[in-house]
Write a structure and sequence with these properties.
The chain is of the alpha/beta class. 46% of the residues lie in helices and 13% in strands. α14 (324-340) packs across α16 (363-377) and α19 crosses α20. The longest helix is centred in the N-terminal third of the chain and has 23 residues, at 106-128.
Length: 480
């Protein structure tokens, strides 16, 4: 019998929840404060803790920190009020399995608890079994091209991939733009029983409301003006395999409704057809936005969110991956040498210092582009700071960050001497108006992209250009 500890200072809620879970076969203990909850944990081993976020003597954040530190194999679910949902999402990033929002609904509670306990059991079995994965992790690159880091953040990421890949769970991948969400989705697919079937990626951010239905579901010839031939939709193309939906938060509300029906019924019907096609598709979605905020604003359907939310993976930004930056840079250098036919062997110490100090708003994608560009323009076998863009070679950490360490991995370099300013030299070489205009355009696009966390749809709106034009300008400026 699985043992659950409920920590909630609202006695009535704890009693009702205890009775409900007991009727469903769980061994339940209740505590009315954080301190009494810790005392119970000292005396007994629990499979799961349900902890209210707001307690009289402490809060959910502190309880989670204590439980993860002292009882790492015990799962934690946060019970939260409506106003605390944003905080609950942050707690998930800290290691909580999930959250349950008040008012409490029996089906949701039971489903969340069951999945949490199954996950805990799988983790225990994974830790105890001497699987071949331990050998694979000694390599720096998996067969599908995903780079394995050595930081705690990366190890946790790949542990989650290995855990969820063999299942049929739908997965939400949360992460900043450029952090490698599609690569994680591919890795999940390649390590699943669907690896021999299609992996179809779809950029929801580039879809117009008019084209979205046709792209998702397909259409028959002549079903509408411009339908000159039969088109197979992405769901049908991915049948038997995995459908990856990137920037899912940008879908219109109407398309979300149609998408929900397809996901629920596991059937798809092309536009203009009466024939329904059975689907066996695993869905992985990615977003760099807070979907819970979008739900509260009425921009994203809550029922669709819960269909996708069977497992969440938080993809850490590059700046939180410490020593992984060095490993990734060396990997991208090898790729760039192969692509460009160059023989650049290493980075100068000053370049590595710049890489470790820089905040990488464009994440892994930005690092890859920087290394690729530096490999192309470098003279000799070493990449020096002269080959780096000015925003990296001249980057200065804010004063409040001096001496800090990244969240994981090795400490930042402690020397903060300003790099030689090449801007004056650059300006001397760019007197003509065309180059001055291009440089101003580059800096404007980069500034706006950083302001919106590299969300290209929002950036295009602010810049008052369409998304395709933004893509072209980013490509021309080596930002993509």
């Amino acid at each position: 019998m699985k043992k659950i500890l409920i920590i909630d200072d609202e006695v009535n809620v704890a009693v009702l929840l205890s009775k409900f879970l007991t009727r469903n076969g769980f061994d339940v203990t209740t505590a009315s404060s954080g301190n009494s909850g810790i005392e119970h944990l000292k005396k007994n081993e629990f499979d799961l803790v349900l902890c209210d976020y707001r307690l009289e003597d402490t809060d959910g954040r502190e309880m989670l920190r204590l439980i993860k530190a002292q009882y790492p194999k015990t799962g934690v679910i946060i019970i939260t009020g409506y106003s605390d949902i944003k905080m609950a999402v942050e707690l998930i990033k800290m290691g909580a399995y999930d959250y349950i929002s008040k008012p409490l609904y029996p089906d949701e509670i039971l489903n969340t608890i069951t999945k949490a306990i199954e996950t805990r059991q799988a983790l225990i079995e994974d830790d105890e079994a001497p699987t071949p994965v331990k050998v694979v992790k000694k390599q720096s690159v998996l067969s599908d091209g995903v780079v394995l880091g050595t930081s705690r953040a990366s190890k946790e990421l790949f542990r989650q991939i290995e855990l969820v890949a063999p299942t049929n769970y739908s997965v939400i991948i949360l992460g900043e733009s450029g952090s490698g969400k599609e690569e994680v989705a591919k890795s999940i697919h390649m390590h699943s029983h669907r690896s021999g079937q299609p992996f179809i990626a779809m950029d929801c951010g580039s879809l117009t409301k008019e084209l979205a239905a046709s792209e998702f579901f397909g259409h028959e010839k002549g079903s509408f003006t411009g339908a000159f031939a039969t088109k197979i939709g992405h769901f049908e193309m991915a049948n038997g395999g995995t459908l990856f939906l990137d920037e899912v938060g940008n879908l219109s509300y109407e398309i979300q409704a149609a998408l929900l029906r397809t996901v629920q019924e596991r059937k798809v019907k092309r536009i203009g057809s009466t024939k329904e096609i059975d689907l066996d598709v695993r869905i992985i979605v990615a977003t760099n936005e807070n979907l819970l905020d979008a739900i509260n604003k009425g921009k994203f359907r809550e029922d669709l969110y819960h269909r996708f939310n069977e497992f969440i993976i938080y993809l850490p930004p590059l700046r939180e991956r410490g020593s992984d930056i060095v490993l990734l840079a060396e990997y991208f250098l090898r790729l760039a040498n192969e692509e460009l036919g160059r023989n650049v062997t290493h980075f100068s110490p000053e370049v590595m210092e710049c890489f470790m100090n820089y905040r990488w708003p464009g994440n892994v994608r930005e690092l890859k582009n920087i290394v690729r560009r530096a490999t192309l323009i470098s003279e000799g076998s070493e990449i020096t700071t002269k080959s780096l863009p000015l925003e990296i070679s001249n980057y200065k950490m804010p004063a409040y960050e001096y001496g800090n360490q990244p969240a994981y991995g090795q400490p930042l370099y402690n020397q903060f001497q300003p790099q030689q300013d090449h801007r004056a030299e650059l300006k001397e070489q760019r007197h003509d108006l065309k180059n001055a205009a291009l440089e101003a355009e580059y800096e404007t696009i980069l500034r706006v992209l950083r302001e919106v966390n590299f969300n290209k749809t929002k950036a295009a709106e602010i810049l008052k250009i369409d998304r395709k034009t933004l893509y072209n300008k980013m490509k021309a400026s080596n930002l993509k």
